[in-house]
Amino acid sequence: MAWIGESRDLSETGPSPRPSPREGGRHFPPLPLGEGRGEGLPRSRFLPPRRLRLALLLASLAIAGLISHWRTVEPPEPGALPVTESDPVPANAAARPVTYTNDVAPILWNRCAGCHHPGEVAPFSLLSYRDAAKRADFLRDVTESRRMPPWKPKAGFGAFLDEARLSPRELDVLARWAEAGAPEGDPADLPTPPTFPDGWRLGTPDLVLTMPEPYDVSPGADIYRAFVLPIPLDRDRDVAAVEFRPDDRRVVHHARMYVDASADSRRRDAADPGPGFATLGGNDIPRPGLGAWIPGVTPRMPPPGVGHVIKAGSDLILLMHYHGTGKPEADRSRVGLYFSKTPIARAMASIPLSTARIDIPPGEARHRIALRATLPADVHAYSVLPHGHFLLRTIKLWAVLPDGSVLRLLWIDDWDFNWQGQYHFREPVALPKGTTLHVVASYDNSSSNPSNPHHPPVRVRFGPASTDEMLGCHLEILPDTPEAGRTVRAKWPAGL
Length: 496
Description:
Blueprint: H1 10-13, H2 49-72, H3 100-111, H4 129-133, H5 136-144, H6 168-179, E1 207-210, E2 215-217, E3 222-230, E4 237-245, E5 252-260, H7 264-271, E6 277-278, E7 289-293, E8 306-310, E9 315-323, E10 329-331, E11 334-339, E12 346-347, E13 349-355, E14 359-360, E15 367-374, E16 379-387, E17 392-400, E18 406-412, E19 423-431, E20 436-443, E21 460-461, E22 471-479, H8 482-491
Parallel strand pairs: 8-12
Antiparallel strand pairs: 1-11, 2-10, 3-6, 3-9, 4-8, 4-11, 5-7, 5-9, 13-22, 14-21, 15-20, 16-19, 16-22, 17-18, 17-20
Helix pairs in contact: 3-6, 5-6
């Protein structure tokens, strides 16, 4: 398969020539063999013109062979590791009756109720027997197909916090409960219902930033909007953590936060007639990231002495993805900042594995783009945030360590534009200096892609509109030493 749009480490090699389909995505200019008597090349004292042309032809064929060999010596894409389920289906499961109170309620409350409770973004609640019983067949279908809970990373390719993937036992319980007619069971067996905190999860923030004015979300909206929140600091401050608090959870799909020490975002805000300014997914906000929020994610404090330095006069850019509820709504969300109690010895950074060299022909169902970058220092990876639009179908990130061993970091094989998230590794991943990071993404620009916004398909290139395409795979890292941090930020100054 051709490496169409292939991109090596851009910060090391610089822009490459325009791709040529005949070279599988790379353009190799022909040697100037000339005509007749070898014009365009120096005459040889030792070879007659005919022999000189023959020698040059053989040399060019040899070079082409070497080039072809070099292009194929790319590391193979690793597959997922075998998964040993910690919660398999019991051998005697079929002989045991399933009820809501004993079996189903604990699953729904633990896995689904974070979004499916009153006031949250999900369209219905799953806190009561009545809520669940009338949707028993629906719950079986959407969980068997893995549409819900919306957890996109593939099992066996990276381990993450807050994983929402249902186990084989949980899937079996929901299926057998629906097939049995959704029996309730004894209400006395019902466990204690969950409670959902109304206050700040990390405690009272040191500084709370609020959207300057409410934003009206229209009934059928699917909106990406960025808002400028000035940070009132009289000096540079060390920030350990941030926590996002949605105002109207029914319309907030997800949020991302950036720091802008320039006036760029203010200018975009001033040029847009409405509150904030239009954006798409954040790749058009080339500023360091502070974090992201999706329903169900738990905010966490970093290790002591770790965080971000925010310069006085900076703005926090709050990127919101809104979903309409069918009626007019208004949102005015907040962000809490938690200052570090100790001086920041190491600051979080990010590696933006991304490219603007995207050109997808119409009708192409497996358009492949590959990126790679080499780490200049020892770091630990904490999270990964992938990004693309409607044609993206799969994205895979892995690392090849200096000793040749492979670390599987992220694989999404069923991309959904509406369910993008930031995935935090269960444990920090050590990536020593010299590690090569690989990203491979595939796009489907055929008429068989139900998410394709173009009918019939058209050529799609890089751009900020939802009908354009992007590729981003942003790795949040903690450099092992202050010197390593300076090295990383010198190579990738923009960050997320």
